Amino acid sequence: GALTARDRVGIQDFVLLDETTEVAVISNLKKRFSKDLIYTYIGTLIVSVNPYKDLDIYSKKQMDVYMGVNFFELPPHIYALADNAYHTMLTEFNNHFILISGESGAGKTEASKKILQYYAVSCPSTTLMNTVRDKMLMSNPVLEAFGNAKTLKNDNSSRFGKYMDIQFDSQGDAVGGHILNYLLEKSRVVHQNHGERNFHVFYQLVEGGSDDLLTQLGLERDVQHYYYLTQGECAIVSSINDKNDWKSVKNALQVIEFDETNTNHLFRVVASVLHLGNVHFDPDSKGHALLKNNTELNWVSDFPSQLLGVDANSLKEGLTFRKIEAKTEQVLSPFTIDHAIYVRDALAKAIYGQTFTWLVNRINESMENKDSSRKTVIGLLDIYGFEVFYVNSFEQFCINYCNEKLQQLFIQLTLKAEQEEYEAEGIEWEPVQFFNNKIICDLVEEKHRGIISILDEECLRPGDATDLTFLERLEEKMGNHPHFVTHKLADKMTRKTLERGDFRLLHYAGEVTYCVVGKLDKNNDLLYRNITNLVCQSKNTIVRECFSAVDTTNKRRPETVATQFKNSLQKLTEMLMAKEAWYIRCLKSNESKQPGQFDEALIRHQVKYLGLMEHLRVRRAGFAYRRKYEDFLKRYKPLCPATWPHWRGIPADGVELLVQHLGYLPDEYKMGRTKIFIRHPRTLYATEDAYEKCKHDLATKIETCWRGAQARKEKEKILMTTACNRAKNDKLIKTLIYP
Ligand SMILES: Nc1ncnc2c1ncn2[C@@H]1O[C@H](COP(=O)(O)OP(=O)(O)OP(=O)(O)O)[C@@H](O)[C@H]1O
């Protein structure tokens, strides 16, 4: 009864669409979007379209509506999913995760914040829980300051992948939290494309830091002064208030219990990166790099080394010379200017990247629950979607690989869950037709033979490995793989679309062309040993802690970036495999961030890259719909005289009578141990229609009776009956309207 006419625009669940074509899916999304209905289901998965305007659907009142209500009885909402995951966790005492995916600007971070807020409001709480809750909520502004940046697509774009566990005790209280971070886009620290900014925190510090703090850190209150802040030529953005955000960050740091020393050291690290960016070089007569003697850059007052807590001369030496250790002596080999810039930038990236991880660890300590009683968790995974626009990005390759893994996880989890459910219900397993992308995951990650292994081998082997030798190795090993092609391997037609330095992967969601230039360097992420040794001894505790774990002996075979990423993804998928999955797929409605605009081409593209059609096919394959006998009976019993108003026998028998009365053919449904399985959504859809009509007829009937009674002055009679009779009357009306 809570569904209003507005909520009935289009179809609320794609599983119920008559035809599962891309055209039908997009037209349904469009219809709903035009009425500000941004959420639509595919079974229990939510598709969300970014409205780019504030909708009045996230109030406390709305939260109350969704608390404890069956998933399909209210209009699709992110709260319905949050609530269902929570209640299933409580009743079944098991672990869950919510995977939020979509391209940049599609609304992933907003969705995950809304879920956190929902739990903050709806879960029971005590003072202790409030503290944990506040810390969880407050970790957001801090992580956003350090991990988000303005990009062309999103003024507050998360430049890292994030997984957050919310831990609940058996009462359903939120008692702790834990965050895992993935692949921060470190390259942004030293370089930003036109129209983009560095991470927010740098601008916040320069704009919002007190005069005293800036003096201490040797900073000018002028973002234009810093090379690392101005490459995108948009340091000041109207939609961002750095000064205010700085206040929120400082406040949040207090909530997550950062003491003065830690806070101070953290700001010093941020400032040191800005100073490092302003270190420039001049060539000497042989073209070797010399530090530019420019007082304005503060190098003279030694700010970079002071803030980093390292010896100034050693840092200067480390930025201009490579130390080569021969058997008995050390030889200093001077850098060219390009090389010196490379080393400076590598240091800035390493410091920032390590500090980010350090920050996540501190936040985790503050949210840690030390009580050892058993907890269940709901994990929120906000992870970058497929990127297809920027060729030549190493990060993009990793991101797309991550999406392949998550698609594989979805396939395994959904099919595994299906199969298990069929077995538990004693129903014969019917193979589902779908594309299994395991072949592509293997292509990327297989030991010794996958792209990452080959990249590693090229990075680590002695001799003159280059990006092009890497490409040649790929061609040798992948030669006739159906999902891999290069200029050399391609047929005539395809060759025209490929450069010589490109390779193309046929991802499950489409083709992406990658350029090999720079792959080796990015994968090595090299920081020279004398610099690493230096920062390991830093007087700044954060810097020291960050680098103390780095292996400077070079004895072990070092792990490259792609391998580290592969391993962390492996751990993540293993952890997720043991949990129950919920999905939110976020779509961007238009590129110009405007409300009310539904760009069909853009939506079609995302529907494809998010694998929505694939998802829909898997959900509809086999038996698309199933429900416990009791629930099925409770809802549809008015549709059959034998079950109305009460069925007193075994629920399964009642359901069988009911569906036979409705004309279900033997092939259209199966009776499991506890549930009825319905093959086509259309069948259920017809039953839903009949139910709605019946409900409407009953309501009309009751109203007519009531009016009739009124006419015969029987209203008074009813009102005069005893309290007991009245209660009975109410109950009768209730059963008639809400059977
Ligand atoms: N449910 C929503 N209601 C209103 N506006 C929204 C909603 N979701 C997103 N937006 C708008 O879109 C912007 C981008 O959303 P968000 O930052 O969540 O994207 P994202 O998918 O996390 O992007 P990225 O991958 O770049 O971090 C938000 O700043 C907000 O203005």
Automatic annotation (TrEMBL):
One Pfam family linked to the record: Myosin_head
Chain intervals for the UniProt region annotation (Actin-binding): 569-591
Top-rank taxon: Eukaryota
Keywords: Actin-binding, ATP-binding, Motor protein, Myosin, Nucleotide-binding, Repeat
Sites where the protein binds ATP: 102-109
Domain Myosin motor residues, every copy: 9-692
Molecular function via GO: actin filament binding; ATP binding; microfilament motor activity
Gene3D superfamilies reported for this sequence: 1.10.10.820, 1.20.5.4820, 1.20.58.530, Kinesin motor domain, Myosin VI head, motor domain, U50 subdomain
Annotated localization: Cytoplasm, Cell cortex
One GO CC term, this protein: myosin complex
InterPro entries: Kinesin_motor_dom_sf, Myosin_head_motor_dom-like, MYSc_Myo1, P-loop_NTPase
CDD domains: MYSc_Myo1 (cd01378)
GO biological process, one term: actin filament-based movement
Family: Belongs to the TRAFAC class myosin-kinesin ATPase superfamily. Myosin family.
Name of the protein described by the UniProt record: Myosin IH
Source species of the chain: Poecilia formosa (Amazon molly)
